[in-house]
């Protein structure tokens, strides 16, 4: 009986799979997961081998160890190096991983997508179209990471419908470029709560509880505002599996975006 030949993992493959790790809840890192099956097909690997590599990465994750999850022992030195690269240069590595994954998918349908190197501005000044591609890559990865952290549930309402969910930035995208890909700057919110948060109609207090702006309160009594917002005031946000929001980001939101008066003197109009 001929023994199957084990093909070593390349660094590029490990970068793609490590990026995938951050976009999946731990409980979904198994060979039957359609996402894992699809990525395995793109890499020319078996779903079982990709799932095993994901659980290898889990053994390196301090967030999982804090939850009592050890992952699969036996990770390689290359696994540890790629994990360290993500930890030390999150923005670079996540964009690299997502761009590589999108490039593999694009090859299947004959589309053209900017190379990871150009997306990361490693080959001179990118064109406007390349900048647009990079922004889309960043937004795509951020959404996947944030939704995975909250297991695709709104952290206020618990809504599990992915088509209704938004990966919200606590610190605004346009004002804080250094935090655009920081998953601790993300909340998983259903669309109308995302809009209310962005417009300063709601915020989060120092204890992680929902607070309402006087602007929103001015619409009471109103059945819709009561059932959707007022009834949830003081409710603690659901905790993510990993990447808990940075409390200082909420402090900024309360002081600079949250509208503290009916006239909305604070925050964006």
Q: What fraction of the residues are assigned to beta strands by DSSP?
A: 5-15%
Biggest sheet features? 2 strands, antiparallel
| End-to-end C-alpha gap | 72 Å
Strand adjacency order, main sheet: 1-2
* Portion in helices: 40-55%
Order of helices and strands: HHHHHHHHEEHEEHHH
Which consecutive residue ranges, at least 5 long each, have pLDDT under 50?
A: 264-269
Number of strands: 4
Shape: elongated
Count the DSSP helices.
12
Question: Averaged pLDDT, please?
Answer: 87
Number of domains: 2
Radius of gyration: 21 Å
What class, by secondary structure content? mainly alpha
Structural notes for this entry:
The protein is mostly helical. The protein folds into two domains: 11-147, no CATH class; 151-257, no CATH class. Helices cover 46% and strands 6% of the residues. It has twelve helices and four strands, in the order H-H-H-H-H-H-H-H-E-E-H-E-E-H-H-H. The protein has helices spanning 11-21, 34-43, 47-58, 62-66, 77-88, 90-109, 116-119, 128-149, 191-198, 214-217, 223-228, 247-257, and strands at 165-169, 186-190, 202-204, 210-212. It has a two-stranded antiparallel sheet with strand order 1-2. Strand 3 and strand 4 (210-212) form a beta hairpin. The chain is elongated and about 70 Å long. The chain starts with 10 loop residues before the first helix and ends in a 12-residue tail after the last helix. The model is unreliable at 264-269 (pLDDT under 50).
Short précis:
The chain is built from twelve helices and four strands; from the N terminus they run ααααααααββαββααα. It has 269 residues and is mostly helical. The strands form two sheets. It has a two-stranded antiparallel sheet with strand order 1-2.
